[in-house]
Design a protein that fits this description.
Length: 342
């Protein structure tokens, strides 16, 4: 049988499927269910700095997204738990005692001192690794983008130096120059990058003329953005890479591994399919069967096989355009453009 074991951030995982940070990864009962269903590792729901927590609590009370009652139930049930670091740290320590799979904590802060202080507390509480949920909207109209990035880098560097556990950074896709920023994160001591985060979206109720907030659930159509950047960064970085966004079945997980990801995260799929055991075992079975069909003994036999290999020939991920290919061939009407591959 094909070996689907892997490493991520220096941790040993029995398979490359990781539950992404969300409200389903906050409480021990749902995390134990994910472990029982066969998940390789779990990223805990992010711990937000108090100011953000207060804002998020207010927003969540406004939630009015009726189509996904299951998710909303979790979000509302979540409110009392947003009480600050102690509640999070106690929960983390308690969960850590009950699960065998790696537990990756996640936090999002505003002030550098808080990032460092939370990171150290998270380490003490027993997390196996820490994911920095790096999101802050730069609102100063006079601040240069290089300065915004330098500030984030300085924070990440300080956090990475202040803990012994491996540190990953979860990025958004909205950087002007992602490659140099990702490279600088690696130089700052980051062991893994998660591509990408998606944020709670603001929508408008035109009847009440009010804002409301809803989680941005994906479909597999969201995957190509992550594939492109993973493929390009895989050639440039030594850090581990995790694809987050659009993994709903074994097919998306295989694609992520083919472009060089160490692991694939799932989140929306967990909300959309409540039978986590069937979902997770189905994804892993698809991966195993596909590997056996292709005679791949382990993930290393094909990981990164379709990463970007030539940044200049116009055939790769970095030069995808609705235009003629280099050899003059038009993109056919059915949109299926065969490319070199396996
Ligand atoms: C309800 C919900 C809550 C989330 N909470 C967090 C969070 O606390 N921290 C974080 O880094 N990402 C959070 N995310 C983003 C997910 O971890 C994930 O990156 C995103 O949903 C894309 O993956 P998917 O296509 O598998 O859903 C959340 C997503 C959803 C839908």
């Amino acid at each position: 049988m094909a070996d689907i074991g892997t490493t991520y951030l220096g941790l040993k995982l029995k398979n490359p499927l990781v539950a992404a940070s969300c409200t389903l990864t906050e409480h021990d009962d749902s995390i134990l269910k994910l472990e029982d269903a066969g998940i390789g590792a779990v990223v805990l729901r992010s711990m937000f700095e108090e100011e953000i927590t207060a804002g998020v609590s207010g927003m969540y009370s406004e939630l009015a997204y009726t189509e996904t009652a299951f998710a909303m139930e979790y979000l509302r049930a979540d409110l009392p738990a947003l009480l600050g670091p102690e509640a999070y740290l106690n929960r983390l320590a308690a969960i850590k005692k009950r699960v065998r799979i790696p537990l990756i904590a996640s936090c999002n802060c505003l002030k550098k001192t808080q990032w460092v202080s939370y990171a150290q507390k998270i380490e003490q509480a027993g997390a196996d690794a820490l994911e920095l949920n790096l999101y802050r909207m730069p609102l100063d109209a006079t601040e240069k983008s290089a300065n915004v990035e330098e500030r984030d880098l300085d924070t990440v560097r300080t956090v990475a130096e202040s803990v012994k556990i491996p540190v990953a950074v979860k990025l958004s896709p909205y950087y002007t120059a992602l490659i140099p920023f990702a490279f600088a994160l690696q130089q700052a001591g980051v062991k893994g990058l998660v591509l990408f985060n998606r944020f709670l979206q603001t929508d408008i109720d035109i009847d009440r003329q009010r804002f409301f907030y809803r989680p941005d659930f994906t479909t597999p159509d969201a995957l190509p953005l992550q594939l492109r950047w993973t493929a390009v960064l895989r050639n440039i970085l030594r850090t581990d890479l995790a694809v987050s966004g659009g993994i709903h079945s074994g097919r998306e997980l295989i694609k992520s591994l083919l472009v060089g990801a160490n692991v694939g995260y799932i989140c929306s799929a967990l909300y959309q399919n409540q039978d986590h055991k069937a979902l997770i075992s189905g994804i892993l079975a698809t991966l195993t069967e596909w590997m056996e069909t292709k005679a791949y003994a382990d993930l290393g036999a094909f990981r990164g096989k379709l990463r970007e290999t030539d940044l200049t020939d116009g055939e790769g991920f970095e030069r995808n355009q609705y235009t003629k290919r280099g050899n003059g061939e038009e993109i056919p009407g059915d949109g299926y453009l065969p490319r070199q591959g396996i």
